[in-house]
# Entry
Amino acid sequence: MKKIFKAGWVILALGVVLAIVGAAFNGVKAVEFNGFKVQTVKKDTAITKTYAKKEFERIEFVNGSGYFVPMELEIKQGQDYSVSYSGSSRFEPKIDYQNGTLKVARGQEMHGFSFDLNNYQSKIDSKLIITVPENVKLSFVKVNGNYDNIKLEKLNIATLELEADSSEKLSLNEVTTERTDIDMNTDEVTITNSKLNNGELSLDRVADLVVSGGELTNINVKVDSEGRVYYKDGLVLNGGGTQLADEVYGYESDDDNDADNDSDADNDSDYADNLEPSADLDADTITIKGKYEIKNNSGATRIMNATVQGYRLTNKHGENNLHDQQQTNGGTLEENADQADVLTLSSQTGENTVK
# Structure
């Protein structure tokens, strides 16, 4: 009872504070708190701006008041160094150059939060374009925040870090990296004729991942959703692997019971029903170098026209199809599996097919 009484006083006090704030600002207005300072949210207008040209070798996005406001971002090859912005005046980025680093704050730097009752930020589309000359190699690119679309094109980057809480599309076209850390919550990812090296490509909520041409070297791809994955058009997979399942993959959740359950059809059915849904993967005209594994839970993995020396297909309860060999209820099929370049398809209840 005392807890309820105290909670009531807290709610009442909060109401009084908000009432005072409203009165101070002549009625109901969008307000924001920058630290302990209360200020009205500025009226939004559309602007276009080009910033001073300076050379840089690093690009870093830092937190600002526009961190959670979706916008379009392009970083691409151009004739010169340039930064331009069109969109919301409230969330115009703050551009700063420090010792060869281009720092971008999405709107003014904030140390607080806002009550934007009129939702100003959704009324004007915003876009930021950054260009670098053709022969420039960027030593570091770090992007975070919310975006409608992120597009990187014709770039050479030593270390690439992309982290988006919410995004509609990520597009990499002719991008080369030495180290790669991509962690996206996005609807669509397209990677075309790019060479990504040494790192991770982790995707949540992705509807489609399409990788065409280029090479993934020592890249661990993780797709934690029910989307579709396409590897095609001469893509080279060299080291690393692809995981189309929850991080707890394989038999880990059932280790203690597998020995007793393998012969029990009812338990097998329960196991299949309780698996996390996973994506389908289709690969056509790809090349495998070294040992490469594609892990799946319940989705289908289908391989066509691959350049590889050998295969190993393993399935706990699902179907294996390796050329003219077939299994309908789990097992392992191999073809030249002792060679140097071998593709392994592992599944729990899905379909493994090689044609």
Notes: Confidence is low (pLDDT under 50) at residues 109-113, 117-122, 247-265. The first strand starts at residue 31 and ends at 34. The chain is about 10% helix and 55% strand.
